[in-house]
Amino acid sequence: GENVEQHPSTLSVQEGDSAVIKCTYSDSASNYFPWYKQELGKRPQLIIDIRSNVGEKKDQRIAVTLNKTAKHFSLHITETQPEDSAVYFCAAQDAAGNKLTFGGGTRVLVKP
Amino acid sequence: NAGVMQNPRHLVRRRGQEARLRCSPMKGHSHVYWYRQLPEEGLKFMVYLQKENIIDESGMPKERFSAEFPKEGPSILRIQQVVRGDSAAYFCASSPRAGGGEQYFGPGTRLTVT
C-alpha cells in the first residue's frame, strides 16, 4: 500500500521567514495530494491541493510543488505569521480515490 | 451550507462498553470516510462508505469495529467492547464525488476509554 513520509517533524521559523515541508510517497499511481492544517484540538482543514497533472499551484502565501518522477511534493509558506503555527499534514490519495494516506505531520511554530 | 457534523464531540466509555460515533456529511455529499488519530500522530484511514455500501474497509480492525451509512440518517462507526487502546480522535470526512478529490473533515469525536 501507499506510504507517505513527511519531514521535518518540527519546524521553528521567525515571523516573516519562509517555511518548507517535504513529503515523499511510494505509489506512483497516486494522483491527488492535499495539504491539511490542524490546530490543537481542531479538525484538519484543507489549505491547498495539487493533482498529478500539475507541477505547481499557488494560493496567496502558500504554494505546493509536485515532482511525479521523484515522487515527492512540498508545501511552501512565505511571509509566515504567528497564526500559521499549527500541525501540517500532507497526504496522497490512491488511484481509486478511496482513501487518503497521511504523512506523520510537521509541527510549525512561528516565533513573533 | 453546514459543514460535516459529528457527535458526540467527546465520549467517555468504560472498558467493555460500546461506543457509537455519528457523522453527517456536508449537504450534497454522499461519500463518507472515517479516520482515526492517535495522540501526537497522523490520521489513519479506516473505512470508506457510500449510501448503503461499504466501498473500502481495508483500514478497519478485523474485530469489534463496524461502520454503516444507511439510506437515511448519519453514518455510524461502532466500536464494541472498547479497550484502552481505542482511545483516540475519530474524524469523518465527506466528499461530493467518487473517484477522488477533496475531503472535508468534521470536528471529530474524542473517545476516552477508562
Summarize the topology.
The complex is a heterodimer of chains A (112) and B (114).
Chain A: E1 4-7, E2 10-14, E3 19-25, E4 32-38, E5 45-51, E6 56-59, E7 62-67, E8 72-77, E9 86-93, E10 100-102, E11 106-111
Parallel strand pairs in A: 2-11
Antiparallel strand pairs in A: 1-3, 3-8, 4-5, 4-9, 6-7, 7-8, 9-10, 9-11
Chain B: E1 5-7, E2 10-13, E3 19-24, E4 31-37, E5 43-50, E6 53-56, E7 65-68, E8 75-79, E9 88-95, E10 104-105, E11 109-113
Rounded mean pLDDT score of chain A: 95
- If helices are DSSP runs of H or I spanning 4 or more residues, what is the number of helices of chain A? 0
Main sheet attributes: strand count, strand direction, barrel closure of chain A: 6 strands, mixed
Q: Give the % helix of chain B.
A: under 10%
* Distinct helical segment count of chain B: 0
User: Could you tell me the strand content of chain A as a percent range?
Assistant: over 45%
Structural class of chain A: mainly beta
Biggest interface, chains and residue tallies = A-B, 26 and 24 residues
- Note the run of SSEs of chain A as H and E: EEEEEEEEEEE
| Shape verdict of chain B | globular
Structural class of chain B: mainly beta
**Content of β-strand of chain B:** over 45%
Low-pLDDT segments of chain B: none
Rg of chain A, please? 13 Å
For the secondary structure, the number of strands of chain A is 11
